[in-house]
Amino acid sequence: MRVGAAAGSLLRVAICAAAVVGGCLIGGTERLSAAESPAESAAELCKWIPAEAVAAVMVSHPADLLRKLDETPAIRELESGLRLAELLERNQELRQLRAAVSLLEGQLQSDWKTILGDMTAGGLVLAVLPDNQVVVIVEARDAEVLRKVNDFVLNLARLDPGNAGKREAVREAEYRGVRGWALSPEESHAVIDRRLVLCNSAELLRRIIDQAQDGGEGLAGSAQFKAAVASLPASDIGVFVDFRLFRDLPQVQEGLRQARSPLSVLFLAGLTEALGGADWLALGLAYEDESVRCALRSGGDTALCKDFGFAMPASPGEGVLPNLDVPGRIMALTMYRDLRDFYARKNELFPERTSGLIFFENMMGIFFSGRNFTDEVLTELDPHVRIVVARQQFTPETGVPEVQIPALAVVFRMRNPQRFGPIVEEGWQKALGLINFVRGQDAQPGLILDRMEYQGVKYTVSYFSTVDEDLSQPLPMRFNFRPVVIAQGEDLILASSEGLGKSIMDAIRASADSDRPLPDVSALLETDLAAVAQVIEDNREALIRQNMLAKGREREEAVKEWEHLKRAVELFGKSVVKVGVHDGRPALDAKVSVKLSTLEQFLPAE
Amino acid sequence: MTSHCGELHDREMPHAGAFPASSDLWQASSHPMSRRDVAHLLRRVAANPTAEELDGFSGQLPDAVFLLLTEESPRYHEFEAELRPLEEAAVRSNAANAYRTWFMWRLVLSPCPLREWMTVFWLEYFGLGIERVADLALFDDVVRSMRRLALGDYHELPAAVLLHPAFLLNVRAPLNYRSDPSEQVGAAILRTCLGYREQDFSAQAGELARAFSGRFINRGRLRVSEFERDTGEKTILGRSKAFEAEDIPRLIAEDARAASWTARRLYRWFCCDTRMPSEEFLSPPAEQLRQNGSVAAAVRLILSSQWFFSEAVRRQKLRRPVEFAAALLRALKGRITLRTVTELTAMGQDILQPTTLDGWSEAGNYFSPLALIQRMNLAAKLVGTDENFGGGLARGAVETWGDDLPNALTDLMTDQAIPVEIGSRWEDLRARYAASSGDRERVAAAMIYLLAVSPVFQTA
Lengths: 606, 460
Fold this sequence. Notes:
The complex is a heterodimer of chains A (606) and B (460). With 606 residues, chain A is of the alpha+beta class.
């Protein structure tokens, strides 16, 4: 690797490393103090960014972020284990980078984290402008540290044997009293007071210098940018995207068009439309307590969201019901969806009537004995809809399916349980009868319908007979299904397995007193990948076989890959995605638990 | 030739008069095999030799190698113990594509490849197709019987297949009423087991169908209705009696014409599919079948013979897509994946579905311009790095043979000869391989591809 190019890369990599995880994984553990940082935020740096920037990534306090990561026990564990450092030693380019960093540490008589913290103490901004122009601006604690690092990099480039014989290993020029350097045609940088400006073209560097010297608000003065920054909660990293350019791209349009199927419209309820009509997008990211928080906001015309009133809580304080908590829960989704309103607007929401929808309407007509599906069926359901996916547990006594599929349940709330319960029961039995008829045509076993009772509630269950099955052998996939319909009070439970149906009955009883709506939340998705890891464990043999089939691997290799998949899933814990409303537009907040302590498992064995 | 009602149907078998002239050529070869002989033998019984087989078998007599090839070694039992649960899981899940892929594993990886390829032979012989049977459990059951008897008792084999429920499903005859016998049952037997042409079926198809009346397939099970049995006299293969289905396999096994027909198909399978010798020449293997009732003896006679190792037989067979892929994967220890098997099906050869009751298309039909492009594309995918096609073929070859790779490739794929049409390109790649260090895998992939698509590799 040529040192000239390496020096340029070094500068870029070092800056980026301050903002992301990578940097703190390499070496020492000395803490950086945010308290010593200048008070200016990264948004202030945006005054030097031309207003036509299409995207900007801002890190107001990189040192804080570094400290948070540095304080993570798992990271310390990783560092003390030194296995990652050893891994990096095996890569030639990273080895060279490490050597250069060591040299820098010697020259500045400090460790690299302190140097990096000092260099970025005032914040960092990376902006993308039209025509693939990129600029990075960092603000250091003082000008001296930048001068020293810059001198070091320039000297390194001049001493590079790869540059021997070249007239100008480092090009140097002055513009409006500011000295700038270029280590390659794609790199130009300058140090202006406490700020380092790094561009991918000399022309852009000159524009930044103009902006700095002429004054003005630049990107920071843009109304879009201001609204985006104001919309975000406190974050470690903020991202602004001027979406007006992107939303008309054919690929984006096509992606949005594909998200207009009835089910997508029902579940996403305005999110894609909000995106398609957005002037700007803002993303905030924060890391704390081994969790990544994320907030996504958009701005633009709110009129586009008018069709999605069915998913907007009708009055203040209204919102989704809390999710149901059942054993082995993988995913729970609670939504505020007025299904009657949704279906009544079908002509506007998805005007392209597909054959699937026509078939659906015909079938609903049969199941509900000719009742009007909108006004006599869906109108009986209130807007609180809950969905649960949970791991199933099988016992050798009842037989274990070859492939174990998680169970799924949908819970509706009925407006008139006494009247509507029997109607659903009748429709349910017709549907199962139809399924049995079709399976019979293919000489496949059918479902037996039965009435059972649990905690005083009678319900309908259907199941496949095991009379002809050897329960000591893995059973066919159909034995994952034992569908039930349960009307418990005002709740209507449709579940693919009887076990999940009963667990939901228990969960509803247990939460009866605390079952109050979450205000202004239109959807809440909670997942727990620990349960997914358990499902991966349950299906060990099936997944190993699938891997052997798909990749042609021998069993030992497939077993290793399966273990890797399981560990990858175990890396994540619980996550929550909340969809609410911000300034009349859907807003999304998420929190994902990332167990960095399990990262070490991904390192190759010594 | 003598026949009951006409000539054997020769859809795929052109006659060539008195070629070859003398039955003495069936005498066992007494010469130890050279590497070239071993490669020839293994191309016919296992699609291609492996490096270990070339090293291990050269210098041995063909007869001794035949015994090794048919031996059910401990390694074979280990292989079965590992693969069979995978097949059973595919059957339980009714996953036909997975089952196909495991079948391909057998063809490429089995320590007893002759048995596996003989199973393919019988599959084609009876025209049994996984889609036609449409019941994976039944299909698996009949395939297992064929594998067990692939080199076994010639008299037992027709019974194992013709009396199996899969046979009736295969010919779309699950219901066989006395009043409405399924003539396609008789037609299929006459065509597949005896080689009759349709115009020569005469009344025999109906008579055979009557023998199968009373047999009903219901939910994968055979049910025999005594009431629907036709107990009247039938004239089948020149003999008249109140024959029933159970008698038919024996009649076939004892029939000279059936033995002759089977010998012709074995000859075509192992020796040559471009020119056929006279019936007289084929009488020794036919006699082994009819008199000794041993498939293994007939196959052994063919594979050990002086004729088999003569120049007239070498490189006289064209590789169909499955043989082409299996040859490449076996030679270079490649991985068999679902996508590879799916691709072979798209190329017109579903390994578990002979195109018609007469078998797969003639090998020459797999060499149309479009088919050649498909073959080249498959070769490119197999030597590439896409994991869905196994990936790593070139990397594995470089790791195994290192500097000696060019020689190893020609040894395994072209009998050490470099076809003229690729000579200069090959030399160029060889030089690049010798000189390169960083991109050896890429050059190796180009070398493997070049040999794989060369004309000589399309022949066996």
